[in-house]
Specification:
single chain, 300 residues, alpha/beta, Rossmann fold, 2 domains, six-stranded mixed beta sheet, 35% helix, 17% strand
């Protein structure tokens, strides 16, 4: 069951700056954080129009793949996941869960995967899988941006800064379009060579030059690149959980939270600033991370 509302939790006060977190990770164990918002309008479109379900793309540990599978099961529609790389048995926790939700998994090599935006390839997929609605990797479409605008609302208006992890930039774009005039959004890319707005402008042309004074990109907190990590990041995750009961994942949310706290400690914000960190979910990925690396992040 998807929760309709989540708490905003005070996390800590540093240098007379208050940091809060919007617990969108609590909406659902899998369809959590920004995933629900990015998928909701595509799911509705697939149900209301003549589509044979949903087809989307992702890696073997993709939060987006798992969330799509769960959401489609919840809504009673078919789902297909085009997975980058060869199939290995047994399936990892993400793919095993997705399959248990009824998702059809189709594994393709990395060269073919690069064709995921090619119109000819997409037409073939429609023919092969009963004319599904195709959602780009990470939910990066106009429907995703529209849904992400709903992440912040009147309950978030008291905050000066909105902070979040950035993958495709879809969620950042939606939040930017929903900001009040006094607010600013800070994005922390998890990719080493993230192009963020250059990418989302291709989706939504309205973003060209949009509110340039209301957003910034902090690219120094990716810990070496996508899915890279070190002992300091893991220790940060553990201490954050021990202090306030907040779990983050090692790919997205931990890096962004580390980044905003580091900026506060360095005096980047005025005294009295109120910052809201958006927990974009993704906790399902912890199991796969632990399996790959052979250790447990959280004791419970």
């Amino acid at each position: 069951m998807i929760k309709k509302s989540v708490p905003i939790q005070h996390l800590r006060t540093l240098n007379e700056v208050e940091l809060f977190v919007k617990r969108d990770d609590l909406m659902h164990p899998i369809i959590s954080g920004n995933k629900l918002y990015k998928l909701k309008y595509s799911i509705a479109k697939a149900k209301n129009e003549e589509y044979g379900g949903i087809l989307t793309f992702g890696g073997a540990y993709s939060n987006h793949i798992a969330a799509t599978a769960a959401y489609c099961k919840e809504e009673g529609i078919q789902s297909v996941g085009i997975i980058r790389g060869e199939s290995t048995q047994p399936l990892n926790p993400t793919l095993s869960y997705s399959k248990s939700c009824g998702m059809t998994l189709s594994f393709i090599d990395r060269t073919t995967y690069r064709s995921k935006d090619d119109p000819g390839y997409l037409e073939k997929l429609k023919e092969d899988f009963n004319n599904p609605l195709i959602i780009p990797e990470g939910g990066a479409n106009l429907e995703g941006i529209t849904g992400a605008q709903e992440i912040i609302g009147a309950q978030c208006d008291e905050f000066d800064i909105i902070a979040l992890a950035v993958g495709t930039g879809t969620t950042l774009a939606g939040i930017l379009k929903a900001l009040s005039p006094h607010q600013k959004v800070i994005g922390f890319p998890v990719h080493k060579h993230a192009t963020v707005f250059e990418d989302v402008i291709q989706i939504d042309s309205e973003l060209q030059g949009y509110r340039q004074n209301q957003y910034s990109i902090e690219g120094g907190y990716h810990f070496g690149g996508y899915a890279k990590w070190n002992d300091a990041l893991i220790q940060f995750m553990r201490s954050t959980y021990d202090e306030g009961g907040l779990k983050t994942d090692p790919i997205y949310t931990s890096k962004a939270l580390y980044g905003i706290i580091d900026m506060i400690q360095k005096g980047s914000f005025e005294i009295g600033t109120k910052i809201l960190f958006i927990h974009t979910g993704g906790l399902q990925g912890i199991g796969g991370f632990e399996q790959r690396h052979g250790f447990t992040i959280y004791a419970s």
